[in-house]
UniProtKB/TrEMBL annotation:
Topology within the bilayer: Multi-pass membrane protein
Name of the protein: G-protein coupled receptors family 1 profile domain-containing protein
One GO molecular-function entry: G protein-coupled receptor activity
PANTHER family: B2 BRADYKININ RECEPTOR/ANGIOTENSIN II RECEPTOR, G-PROTEIN COUPLED RECEPTORS FAMILY 1 PROFILE DOMAIN-CONTAINING PROTEIN
Transmembrane domains' residue ranges: 20-43, 55-81, 93-120, 132-152, 174-198, 219-243, 249-268
SUPFAM superfamilies the UniProt entry points to: Family A G protein-coupled receptor-like (SSF81321)
GO cellular component terms, semicolon-separated: plasma membrane
Chief location bin: membrane
Keyword terms of this UniProt record: Cell membrane, G-protein coupled receptor, Membrane, Receptor, Transducer, Transmembrane, Transmembrane helix
Pfam families linked: 7TM_GPCR_Srsx
Residues of the G-protein coupled receptors family 1 profile domain: 34-273
Localization: Cell membrane
InterPro entries in the record: 7TM_GPCR_Srsx (IPR019424), GPCR_Rhodpsn (IPR000276), GPCR_Rhodpsn_7TM (IPR017452)
Length: 332
């Protein structure tokens, strides 16, 4: 009886792993296409050459780097590849570094929005040079925060296991959880709270207008969407770390969510970048119609009438006839 139960659990785990692998592959494909599309649009469109879109491109490049490292770790996880502890430790460090560089990309994007919304009077903060410094800061802080994974020996190679810090090292796991998830989420939440409060206060005299209420609602919606995506990608991993730190085996469903939701969250965030960013969205629509004219909306155009090399608009003809009728009635 126990053998049958364990066999059923093993089969369900294998099915869950296969499903999570399919979801991860689809998420990786969607994220890769979206990142490349955003980068290409920003490069080839002169109107998108701004400091804000520089950070968007940096986030896309960081995401591509994270996806490459995740694919490497997934290959080790789903195959019986033999590695040494040192090589596994390097892979683990690259994973945490790539994860931090993506998460702190969102932090510096929030800081940039703070510059443009609240501190816009300080022109230097809006310059391209300042935003390049933000990118350098993101890389340095991600590099330093991940050093603990390669300095310590808390990552050990185990077949069919990801090269991550083992659950028995609870302090190290909580350190990574705090620096890679909790602190960025708190910083982003505080910054967006300041931005929203400033926007509400600056439009206090126009609160009754439709434009002011619509802008406030749109800003709140965008903030909630982004925070919701961040929480969706990080909460399952946080729950898995907390449960594993207690010395208990975490349920397989939590483990599957922990390895699947980050890639899904990144794919959702890239889609929302195109949808919520007005400039990128408009350029995408124009490029789509240009590249795929048969997929665009059909436009019915009225051809003008030409007489004696003169172009006559049908609308003007109708108006002239109405004016002529009115003048005749007046004479009558």
């Amino acid at each position: 009886m126990m053998t049958n139960t364990s066999g059923m659990q093993l089969n369900s785990l294998n099915i869950g792993l296969n499903v999570s692998m399919i979801v991860c592959i689809l998420s990786v494909v969607i994220s890769t296409i979206a990142c490349l599309l955003i980068i290409i649009l920003i490069i080839i469109t002169r109107n998108l050459h701004s400091s804000t879109n520089l950070l968007v491109s940096s986030t896309c490049l960081s995401t591509l780097f994270y996806l490459i490292i995740s694919i490497m770790n997934a290959f080790v996880f789903y195959t019986a590849s033999s590695l040494t502890d040192w090589s596994c430790r390097i892979r683990g460090y690259l994973y945490y570094f790539s994860l931090n560089i993506v998460i702190y990309s969102y932090v510096i994007q929030a800081i940039s929005r703070l510059f443009w919304t609240v501190l816009y009077k300080h022109r230097y903060l809006l310059s391209m040079k300042c935003h390049i410094y933000l990118i350098i800061f993101k890389i340095c802080i991600s590099f330093l925060l991940s050093l603990s994974t390669i300095i310590t020996k808390d990552i050990v190679f185990v077949p069919f296991k990801m090269c991550l810090v083992l659950p028995k090292y609870a302090i190290h796991e909580f350190y990574l959880l705090i620096t890679s998830f909790i602190i960025p989420i708190v910083i982003i939440s505080i910054i967006y709270g300041i931005i929203y409060h400033h926007t509400i206060r600056s439009t206090a005299n126009f609160r009754q207008t439709l434009h002011g209420a619509k802008r406030d609602a749109e800003l709140a919606r965008n903030i909630l969407i982004l925070l919701g995506i961040f929480l969706f990608g990080g909460i399952p991993s946080a729950i898995y770390i907390i449960v594993s730190s207690k010395g208990e085996a975490a349920p397989s469903i939590i483990f599957l969510f922990a390895i699947t939701t980050p890639s899904m969250a990144i794919a959702l965030e890239k889609i929302m970048t195109i949808v919520l960013n007005r400039d990128i969205r408009q350029v995408f629509k124009l490029r789509w119609i240009k590249w795929f004219p048969y997929c665009g909306p059909s436009i019915t155009r009225v051809q003008p009438i030409t007489t004696n090399n003169r172009i006559i608009n049908p609308t003007n003809i109708q108006r002239s006839q109405q004016n002529k009728t009115k003048s005749q009635n007046t004479h009558v």
